[in-house]
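dude i think i finally got it to work??
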Amino acid sequence: MMRRPLSFVPIATALLVALLSVAPTLAQDATPVAQESPAAVADELRPWVVSDPFVPAPDECTADAIDVTSLATSLATPIPVAGPNLTSAGIEAMNVTGLADAATIEGVLDTLTLFWACTNAGNRPAVASLMTPAAISQFYGIDLSLSGAELEDAATAALTNSGDRPEGERAFIDGVLNIVYLGDGRTGALVLNTDPYVNNGLPVLDLFVFVNLNGVFQVDSVTFDPFDLTPGYGFEIGS
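look at this
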């Protein structure tokens, strides 16, 4: 697949500038503005930086695998699935209220590190443990119209553990372009990333949205290519 001409770069740059220019005073009530970089995450992975690939190794996947039977029970409960919130230009709308504070940044980057480590370990049940049931069904395409044993079989098939990826086939993060608070109370992170199995191995930009559950940031949704920059990948107008 041919990479789209670089004419889209000004759009992405303008968006990034707009997001970074949001006044910190608009952050959620009682939320301090980030004053320092988180110390608990790898120096290579921090917001507003694009650098050499950050490639968490399979042995860094320390998340416990999700119990598929329990997941199937959760998925059997009706899960509201919201359609895309599009602007008049047909791209994903983002209601940003402020830049994330240091503790939120640290929690989000910790989850992203585990997410990529477990991806490189081929450990889908561990990846799923970092997500809410709604995000799991969306990310892995589990058919929520199923029920009972069929739903559990579908979840089991979707979360098959494929084992460690060879070193040259591992996914990596090129940069976390921002981590911000969203209008619905969740936290969004635009993640520039590369996977040899995705988009012919060319970089893509995805929006990860997190919920804070007792101090642990879980992925609540993923919008692939939210600004429709990459032809044939992820979010497309009319999808």
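Helices lie at 9-20, 68-76, 102-120, 124-128, 133-140, 148-158.
im so relieved honestly
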